[in-house]
Amino acid sequence: MNKAQKLFSVSLLALIVSGCAVTSKPIDRSESEQRAKSDLVDMYKDQEPLNGPLTLHEAMARAVKYNLEARLKVMEEAMAQRQVDLASFDMLPRMAMSAGYAGRNNVGASSSQSIQTGTQSLEPSTSQDRDRRVADLTMVWNVLDFGVSYISAKQQGDQRLIVQERRRKVVNTIVQDVRSAYWRALAAERLLTQIDSLMARVEKAQTNSEAMSDQRVGDPVQALSYQRALIEATRQLEDQRRALSLAKTELATLINLPLGSDLKLAAQSDYEVPVLKVGLSRLEDEALASRPELREQDYQTRISAAETRKAMLRMLPGLEFSAGGHYDSNSFLVNQSWADYGVKVTWNLFNVISAPAAINVAKAGESVASARRQAMSIAILAQLYVANANYQEALRQFKTSQQLSKLDGQIVGQLRNRYKANSIGELDLIQGELNTLQADLRRDLSYADLRNAYGQIFASAGLDPLPVTLESTEIKSIASALATREDGWAQGKISTP
Question: Across the chain, how many H-helices and E-strands are there?
Answer without folding.
Answer: 12, 4
